[in-house]
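Reviewers of the previous submission asked for a worked example of the structure-prediction workflow described in the proposal, so we include one complete record here. The input consisted solely of the amino acid sequence. No template or homolog information was supplied to the procedure at any stage.
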Amino acid sequence: MPQELEGNAVTRLSLTSVSGRTHQLNVHCAAFGHPIVGDSTYGIGGDASPNGGLAGETLSSGAASLELQQSISDVAKGKSMGPCVHLKHLSFKHPATDEVLSFESKSPF
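From that input alone, the workflow returned the following structure tokens.
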């Protein structure tokens, strides 16, 4: 769903972690050239290599330019936004009662 963040094109995604591995969604988005806004590890200027370490021909032709990524990052920092990741739905079986508990939450951004 294309949107804007102070004149910068951004897209809201619905992602599902398949493996449950730490940072799975973050590193995959970065490797596609579209890091998660506010991600201080895999986003622009983060601790990891930009775009998941991919560059040149190995990077998607539709990747966001480093200039666009920097502009979005600057806006997010100016608004004191953390990583734009939100758990919409959580469901699990209670360990003592075996009752299935489900929680829903709307995104704050």
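The chain is about 20% helix and 15% strand. We consider this example representative of the routine output the project will generate in years two and three.
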